[in-house]
């Protein structure tokens, strides 16, 4: 994939990086755990989204549990969706288990959607 910095440079400036990162987050919000009707970003499964000036993205994510049935499908889906973001040149998805996920990591929106109040 080619780096398409709007400024025409081979590297993104700070403002462009923020835009790309926001677009990555929007792409992540289209990924859903098949057992829970809330996107993985709002569920708190995405721990970090980093993008360097060359457009390489690194996503640290977790799953609701080590035995999660979506363990085989979600990380590749995340990679595929982030690769489609304009300006992203490569994607590395790391599944991490620390800190361990728990429902307190969900956004208020996710808690409302799941009637957790």
Category from helices, strands and their pairing: alpha+beta
Number of domains: 1
The strand order across the widest sheet is 1-2-3
CATH architecture: 2-Layer Sandwich
Strand content: 15-25%
SSE pattern, N- to C-terminal:
HEEHEH
Number of strands: 3
Shape: globular
Largest sheet, described in full?
Answer: 3 strands, mixed
- CATH hierarchy class name: Alpha Beta
The total count of helices amounts to: 3
Stretches with pLDDT under 50, minimum 5 residues: none
As for the CATH topology, it is GMP Synthetase, Chain A, domain 3
Distance between the termini: 44 Å
Helix fraction, binned, reads 25-40%
The CATH H-level homologous superfamily: Fe-S cluster assembly (FSCA)
Radius of gyration in whole Å, from Cα? 15 Å
Mean of residue pLDDT values: 90
